[in-house]
C-alpha cells in the first residue's frame, strides 16, 4: 500500500526475517564471527542469546545463506515445552527421518546412521535450535548425548542454540555442568546504539529501493530509538506504522510530531479499551458531527460569543477528523494482518540440503 506511494520495491520493515535486509551492525558482525568460529571448530554447542527482537533468527538465516556452497546439512528446530523423546522425534522430522511411533532406541539409531551417512559424503550435520530457553533440562542432555556420535574419531554433529536471556540462566544450573563443558562459543546480542538505529533504518529503506522519499528528520530518528530501545523488531513495527501514517496523510517528510503521534496510537492499541459510560461517545467509522438543523450551526449571541462557539465547533470537528483517520489506519492494519495470514505462502523452512 504505502510502498507504491513512496515508490518502494517492497515493504522495508516487514517482521518476517529476510536475509536480503540483514544489517551488518557491529554487534551482528561480531556475533556472525562467533558463529563461524564455532562452525569451524566443528563440534559442541554454540550459544547465542539476546532479548526478544534483537535479530537472532535473522542472524542464523544470514549464516545459512553463507553456507549454501559448503558441505553442511542444516536443520532449524523451533522448540516448545517438549519431553526428551519428543525432542528426538522433532530432530528426526527436521532431517526427514522416520519418527512417528518409533521407540527411543530406534530414533537414536536412525539419527546416528544419518549423521554417519552424511559424514561419509563429506558433509557435517548442523542443528539450529531456536527459542532454546524452552527446552527442559532432559532435552538439553539428549542433545549433549547426540554430540557424542563420531566417525573415525571425528565429530559428525553440531548444535547452535539461540535463545532469550533465560537460556544463560538455565545453562548455569548445577545439573548443566556437562552441557557447559561442550559449549565452544557463546555470544549475547545487545540492542542497537542510537547511531546504529539510524543506519539500520536507512539500510532497510535503501534495500527496498528508497529514493529519499519520505525523508526522516533527525528528531524522528532519535524518537524512534528512544521508543524502541534499539531493538530491531520494535524499530520495524514502529517504522511500518509510521510509513502507513505518512501514506494516509500524504506526507513526504516524517518528523518528530508524526513519530510521537504513531507511538501514541500504538500505545493506545496495546491497552485494553475500558467499557464506555453510557454518556460517552463510542468509536465508530461514521461519527455524527451535528444532529441539529443546518441553520443551528451558526451560533447566536454577540460577535465574541459567536466566535468563541465557532472555534469550539471547529476544534471538535478537528478531533473528529483525527479520530476517524486513526480508526482508518487501524482498519487498514487489521486488513493487512488478515491478508498476511490468509494469502502469504508459508515460509520455506531451513532443512536438509
Our estimate of the beta-strand percent is 5-15%
How do the strands line up in the largest sheet? 2-3-6-1-7
Binned, the helix content reads: 40-55%
In this structure, how is the largest beta sheet organized? 5 strands, parallel
Q: Overall mean pLDDT score?
A: 80
SSE run? HHEHEHHEHEEEHHEHEHHEHH
Radius of gyration: 27 Å
Oligomeric nature of the chains: single chain
The count of strands amounts to 9
How far apart lie the N and C ends?
36 Å
Give the helix tally. 13
Please characterize this protein's 3D structure.
This protein has 353 residues and is an alpha/beta fold. The protein is 50% helix and 12% strand. The protein has 13 helices and nine strands. It has helices at 2-5, 26-41, 56-66, 84-94, 104-120, 137-146, 166-171, 177-181, 194-207, 218-228, 232-248, 256-270, 303-343; strands at 45-50, 72-78, 124-130, 150-151, 154-155, 157-163, 183-189, 215-216, 253-254. The strands form three sheets. It has a five-stranded parallel beta sheet, sandwiched between helices. Strands 4-5 form a two-stranded antiparallel sheet. Helix 10 crosses helix 11 and helix 10 (218-228) runs parallel beside helix 12 (256-270). The protein is elongated, with a radius of gyration of 27 Å. Residues 272-301 and 341-353 have low confidence and may be disordered.
Keyphrases for this structure?
single chain, 353 residues, alpha/beta, five-stranded parallel beta sheet, 13 helices, elongated, disordered C terminus
Give a short overview.
The chain is α/β, with parallel strands linked by helices and 353 residues long.
Amino acid at each position: 500500500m504505502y510502498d507504491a506511494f513512496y515508490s518502494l520495491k517492497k515493504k522495508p520493515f516487514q517482521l518476517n526475517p529476510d536475509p536480503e535486509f540483514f544489517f551488518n551492525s557491529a554487534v551482528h558482525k561480531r556475533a556472525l564471527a562467533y558463529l563461524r568460529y564455532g562452525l569451524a571448530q566443528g563440534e559442541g554447542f554454540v550459544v547465542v542469546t539476546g532479548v526478544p527482537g534483537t535479530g537472532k533468527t535473522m542472524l542464523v538465516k544470514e549464516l545459512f545463506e553463507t553456507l549454501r556452497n559448503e558441505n553442511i546439512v542444516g536443520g532449524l528446530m523451533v522448540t516448545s515445552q517438549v519431553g526428551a523423546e519428543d525432542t528426538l522425534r522433532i530432530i528426526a522430522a527436521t532431517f526427514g527421518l522416520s519418527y512417528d511411533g518409533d521407540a527411543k532406541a530406534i530414533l537414536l539409531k536412525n539419527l546416528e546412521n544419518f549423521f554417519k551417512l552424511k559424514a561419509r559424503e563429506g558433509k557435517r550435520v548442523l542443528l539450529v535450535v531456536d527459542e532454546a530457553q524452552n527446552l527442559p533440562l532432559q532435552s538439553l542432555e539428549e542433545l549433549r548425548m547426540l554430540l557424542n556420535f563420531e566417525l573415525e574419531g571425528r565429530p559428525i554433529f553440531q548444535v547452535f542454540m539461540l535463545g532469550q536471556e533465560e537460556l544463560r540462566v538455565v545453562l548455569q544450573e548445577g545439573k548443566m555442568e556437562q552441557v557447559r563443558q561442550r559449549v565452544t562459543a557463546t555470544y549475547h546480542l545487545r540492542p542497537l546504539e542510537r547511531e546504529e538505529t539510524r543506519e539500520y533504518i536507512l539500510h532497510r529503506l535503501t534495500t527496498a529501493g528508497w529514493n529519499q522519499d519520505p525523508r526522516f528528520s533527525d528528531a524522528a530518528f532519535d524518537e524512534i530509538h528512544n521508543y524502541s530501545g534499539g531493538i530491531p523488531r520494535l524499530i520495524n513495527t514502529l517504522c511500518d506504522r509510521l510509513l502507513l501514517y505518512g501514506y494516509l496523510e500524504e506526507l513526504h517528510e516524517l518528523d518528530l510530531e508524526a513519530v510521537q503521534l504513531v507511538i501514541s496510537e500504538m500505545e493506545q492499541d496495546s491497552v485494553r479499551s475500558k467499557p464506555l459510560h453510557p454518556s460517552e461517545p463510542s468509536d465508530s467509522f461514521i461519527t455524527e458531527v451535528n444532529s441539529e438543523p443546518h441553520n443551528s450551526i451558526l451560533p447566536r449571541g454577540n460577535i465574541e460569543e459567536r466566535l468563541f462557539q465557532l472555534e469550539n465547533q471547529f476544534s471538535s470537528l478537528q478531533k473528529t477528523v483525527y479520530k476517524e483517520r486513526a480508526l482508518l489506519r487501524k482498519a487498514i492494519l487489521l486488513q493487512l494482518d488478515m491478508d498476511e495470514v490468509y494469502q502469504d505462502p508459508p515460509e520455506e523452512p531451513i532443512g536438509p540440503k
